[in-house]
From TrEMBL:
The keyword Transferase does not apply. Residues 347-356 have a biased composition (Low complexity). Keywords: Endonuclease, Hydrolase, Nuclease. Pfam families: MbnB_TglH_ChrH, SCO6045_C. Residues 339-361 are annotated as: Disordered. It comes from the Bacteria. This is AP endonuclease, family 2. Residues 372-454 form the SCO6045-like C-terminal domain. The keyword Hydrolase applies. InterPro entries: MbnB/TglH/ChrH, SCO6045-like_C, Xyl_isomerase-like_sf. GO terms for molecular function: endonuclease activity.
Length: 500
C-alpha cells in the first residue's frame, strides 16, 4: 500500500490555509463536492505540487440492500481519474432504503447509518463491494462508521465483521479511530478489542476527528477538537501497525489555521508514541521466542545486539527500518534464523480469500436486509413505529439528529431560504421534516420544503410568501428561466418592489 503520510480533509472553507500548511503530504476531498471537469483551483495547485488527493464518497450506500447504482459508481471513478488518485474510499453504511426490492416507499437518510453485523448483511456487503471494485479504476477502501443506535441480534463484533469483509473481498480498510471512540461511548464497544480483531495489514489509512458528548451520547461532529481518548486509540493502533496514512477531519466550525496545525502535531506525537511501543513489543517478542528456541535446541542463535554477528544484524535492522512496515518481517527473519516464514505484504494479506466462493444468500438476503433497513429508516424519518428490539430512546435521538442535519444542509445548499424566512426557517423546516421524509437529494428537499410551505399558505407575511414563490419558480420549472439581461433586470426589479 502506498505510504500517504499525514494529511487533512480538504474543504473549500479552509482551502487557502491547507495550501499554506507545512507538513501536509496528502488531502482528502468529499467526492460528491468535486466536479471532474471543473476542479477547484486549490486542488489543482496541490496536485501540481505533488500532494496526493483522495476522493471520499458519502452517497454510494454499499451497506444497503440494493446493488450499487451504476451512475454513482461512474461518477466516483471519474473523480478518481480526474484527481489522479491512488485509491478511493467509501463507507460501510446504508443511506437509503425502500423501493422496488421491498415494495415500500423509497426513503433517503441523508446520513450514514449502521449496517447490522449479520451473515445476511455481510453477504450483501461483500457482493456490493465486489461490484464497486470492478467498476473503479483504482483500489477501494471502506470506512467503519460511528453510530448512535445498535441493531438487535447481531452475530459478529465490529472487528470480526471487518475481518471477514476484507478476507472475502480483498478490500482495503479506512479505520476511523474517532468512530471507534463514538461506538465505545454509545454502544459500549471496546476499541482495543476491535483493533485486536482487525486485519491490520488491510489498513489503507486512518481518520482522526473530534466530537462532543451530550446526555451520555457521543456526537461525531467533526466540528470540535480531537479529544484525548481518540488520540489514545490512535496510539494503540500505531502500537500494533504502522498505518500508511493518517488524516485529520474537520467539516464545520473551522478554527484558525494555527489550531489545526496544533492538532496535526498532536496526531504525529500519538503516532510516534505508538511506534515506540510497537518496536519495544517486537523486540521483546523476538527475545522471548529466541530464548525458548535456545532452550529447546541447545543451539546458540544470535539475538539482536549479541556480539556474534552484531554489525550485520544491526545493519539489516536499520535497512528494514528504512522501509516502513518491514520491522515485523525483519524480526520474523531473526526468529527463523534468517529464513523467511512468508513474504505476504499488505496487499496480499488484504486479498486473502478474494477468489473464494461467496456465501449463499443472493436476493433472499437482500430482501431480508432491505425490509429491516426500510423499517428502521421509516421510523427515523417518517415517524412510523420503532422496530422491535431497538432502543426507542436512542432511535428518537437519532431521528432528531437527522432532522437537524437536514435543516443545516438545506440551509447550505439553498442559502436563500434562511434569508427569505429569517428566524422562522429552522422551526418551519423541523416541523416539515417530521411528516415529510426525504426521497431525493438535499436540493430536491429544499424545493419540496418551499412547495410545502406555499401550499399551506405560508409564510403568513404576504411579501415574504411572494418572495419565496419567486425563489421556488426560478428553480422548479421544466426549463431554466431566461438569462437574458433584460429579463434578469425585470425579475430583480420585481423582487426589490416586493420587499418594500
Amino acid at each position: 500500500m502506498e505510504r500517504l503520510g499525514t494529511g487533512i480533509g480538504w474543504r473549500p472553507e479552509i482551502a487557502d490555509a491547507v495550501e499554506r500548511m507545512p507538513g501536509i503530504d496528502w488531502v482528502e476531498a468529499v467526492a460528491e463536492n468535486v466536479c471532474p471537469g471543473h476542479l477547484p483551483d486549490s486542488l489543482r495547485r496541490l496536485r501540481e505540487r505533488g500532494v496526493t488527493v483522495v476522493p471520499h464518497g458519502v452517497s454510494l450506500g454499499l451497506g444497503g440492500a440494493d446493488r450499487p447504482d451504476e451512475g454513482r459508481l461512474t461518477a466516483l471513478a471519474e473523480r478518481a481519474e480526474a484527481l489522479g488518485s491512488p485509491l478511493v474510499t467509501e463507507h460501510i453504511a446504508f443511506v437509503r432504503a425502500g423501493g422496488a426490492l421491498t415494495a415500500t416507499p423509497h426513503l433517503e437518510a441523508g446520513h450514514l447509518l449502521p449496517v447490522p453485523r449479520t451473515r445476511d448483511a455481510l453477504d450483501v456487503l461483500c457482493e456490493n463491494v465486489r461490484i464497486a471494485q470492478e467498476a473503479l479504476p483504482v483500489p477501494l477502501a471502506v470506512e467503519n462508521i460511528a453510530a448512535l443506535i445498535s441493531w438487535p441480534c447481531e452475530e459478529m463484533t465490529e472487528g470480526q465483521f471487518l475481518y471477514e469483509l476484507a478476507d472475502r473481498t480483498g478490500v482495503r480498510l479506512l479505520i476511523d479511530v474517532a468512530n471507534l471512540h463514538t461506538n465505545h461511548v454509545n454502544r459500549a464497544e471496546d476499541p482495543a478489542k476491535a483493533l485486536a480483531e482487525l486485519p491490520l495489514e488491510a489498513i489503507a489509512y486512518v481518520h482522526v476527528a473530534g466530537g462532543f458528548e451530550r446526555d451520555g451520547v457521543w456526537h461525531d461532529s467533526h466540528a470540535h477538537p480531537v479529544p484525548r481518548p481518540v488520540l489514545d486509540i490512535l496510539t494503540d493502533l500505531a502500537s500494533r501497525v504502522s498505518p500508511p496514512g493518517v488524516l485529520l477531519e474537520r467539516d464545520e466550525n473551522f478554527p484558525e489555521p494555527a489550531e489545526l496545525e496544533t492538532e496535526l502535531g498532536s496526531i504525529r506525537r500519538a503516532l510516534e508514541a505508538g511506534a515506540v511501543e510497537r518496536v519495544k513489543t517486537e523486540v521483546r517478542s523476538a527475545g522471548a521466542a529466541l530464548a525458548v528456541r535456545r532452550a529447546e535446541t541447545g543451539t546458540v542463535v544470535p539475538l539482536i545486539g549479541d556480539a556474534l554477528g552484531e554489525k550485520t544484524t544491526v545493519r539489516r535492522h536499520e535497512e528494514a527500518r528504512s522501509q516502513p512496515g518491514d520491522e515485523a518481517r525483519f524480526l520474523a527473519d531473526q526468529l527463523a534464523g534468517g529464513a523467511r516464514r512468508g513474504d505476504e505484504d499488505g496487499a496480499a494479506g488484504a486479498a486473502r480469500g478474494a477468489f473464494g466462493l461467496p456465501h449463499p444468500g443472493g436476493d433472499g438476503a437482500r430482501q431480508r436486509l432491505g425490509l429491516a433497513q426500510a423499517a428502521l429508516l421509516s421510523a427515523l424519518v417518517a415517524g412510523t413505529p420503532v422496530p422491535e428490539g431497538f432502543d426507542r430512546v436512542r432511535v428518537g435521538v437519532q431521528a432528531r439528529a437527522l432532522a437537524a442535519k437536514r435543516a443545516d444542509v438545506v440551509a447550505k445548499v439553498a442559502p436563500e431560504l434562511p434569508e427569505i424566512l429569517g428566524a422562522e426557517y429552522r422551526t418551519a423546516f423541523l416541523a416539515y421534516a417530521q411528516t415529510q421524509p426525504m426521497t431525493g437529494g438535499y436540493r430536491r428537499d429544499a424545493l419540496t420544503f418551499a412547495e410545502h410551505l406555499l401550499s399551506a399558505g405560508r409564510p403568513g407575511d404576504a411579501a415574504t410568501r411572494r418572495e419565496l414563490r419567486e425563489w421556488w419558480l426560478e428553480r422548479s420549472g421544466p426549463a431554466p428561466r431566461s438569462r437574458r439581461p433584460v429579463h434578469r433586470l425585470a425579475r430583480a426589479t420585481r423582487k426589490a418592489l416586493l420587499r418594500r
